[in-house]
Each structure stands twice: as C-alpha cells, then as structure tokens.
Amino acid sequence: MKMLKKIAAAIMAVAMATLMLTACGEDSAPSYRLQKIVEANQKTGKTYVEVEANGNNTAFAMSGKDSYVALPLQNGNNKMEIVAKESGTYILYPNLNGYVKAEGYSNVVGSVDAVVPSQSKLNGIAVAPQYEIKNVGMFYAEVITVESGKVAYCFDGDKVVYVVIEESDNTTVIKVNKWTNEIPEEIQNKMALKGYTEIQSAQ
Question: Apex CA 86: angle with CA 81 and CA 89, to 5°?
Fold first, then answer.
C-alpha cells in the first residue's frame, strides 16, 4: 500500500501542479511550453493521464473537485480503482456495479501535500535546456519549485514525455504515455458513480 500511495501522490502531483500553474501562467511568457497545458486546463478544468511509474501502468483523472485513480495491485493482473469526491472516498468494484465508501483510503488520492503545495507556494518556472534523466537521456525541461522539492516536466517538442518529482530524500521518474484534457466517458461515469450502488463488502 505504501507504494500505491507513492504512485498516487506522484500522479496527483503531475495533474494538480499543472492545474495550479494557472496563476503563474497568466503572467508567464508565451514561450513556456507549459503555457499550452495551462491554457487547456483553463478551458476544460479536466485532466486525464496515463503513465508508467516504478514499472506500474497507472491512470489518473481530475474534473473539478473530483478525482479518479487506477492503481495496479501487486499481482499485476488487477487494479484498484478509487474515486475521491467532496462527499467521500470510494473504492469501486465494477464487476459488482458497486462501491465501498472507505475513508481509510482517502490518503491514497488525497494526501499529496508533500509534493503538491497550495497555489500560493509555487515559486515560478525555471527552464532547464539540458535536463538529464539517468539511464533515459537529456531533455528540454521546465521546472516548478514547490515546498518539498521540484517537479520537472520534460518535453519532446511540445509534448510532455516524462515528469520527474525531486524530493530531498527521493526522486520519482514518471513516463507519460498519454496526457489529455478529454476524460474517457467510461471514466467520467465512474467519477460520477453512475451505475454504481453502495455495497457493504466485495466479498
């Protein structure tokens, strides 16, 4: 579960830090490649990403105050799907068309303060023309400094291909396979708990 929390926090850092760039982006020069991402977020308020972190394929979505994360379980054959809303945190069981409300899991998608500070704590963007990811290569990167460290967005052209979260005691490298402002309908329905009813247990 510790690894799940780490991956979830990293994914949320990617999405939320980008959303929170809005205030900085309004005064930023158009030359920043992150500016295009900021503008897209301003228009839709939605983010959907598919990434690979620590060898695990993970998906994450944000729409307003609702969020969704699909995390691989240790056996690699199944995934845990969690929806966080203002009303609570829900573990989904699609095979049962049901959910279990489980506040004990709220930190899986909610406790990201270590890597995602409040908007007021963002310290701006720095350009790193030659940012190295060990065993991967060199990239043009735009780096956001946050309270606990840095979030580096590495680009291939205008496309984000890696995100590196640097903390004082740890570095997480995230390979971005998909980044869009269109959330698949299936995921939107899950975020709305559409077609799901509360169950007492998945057993």
Answer: 30
Confidence of residue 165 (pLDDT cuts 50, 70, 90): confident
Handedness of CA 12, 113, 111, 54 (dihedral sign): positive
For 55-72, what is the HEC assignment? CEEEEEEEECCEEEEEEE
Q: Are 69 and 50 in contact (CB under 8 A)?
A: no
The Cβ of residue 128 has, within 10 Å, a number of other Cβ atoms equal to 16
Pure H helices in the chain: 2-19, 22-25, 34-44, 106-110, 185-191
Interhelix angle 34-44/2-19, nearest 10 degrees = 90
Yes or no: say if 18 and 34 are a contact pair by the CB < 8 Å rule: yes
Task: Quote the CA–CA distance of 67 and 168 in Å, as a whole number.
Answer: 27
CA atoms of 36 and 2, how far apart (whole Å): 34
| Cβ atoms of 121 and 25 closer than 8 Å | no
Distance CA 13, CA 26 (A): 20
For residues 51 and 9, give the distance between their C-alpha atoms in angstroms, rounded to a whole number. Answer: 13
What is residue 122's predicted lDDT score, i.e. its pLDDT? 47
Q: Which domains are seen in the chain, by residue range?
A: 2-198 (2.50.20)
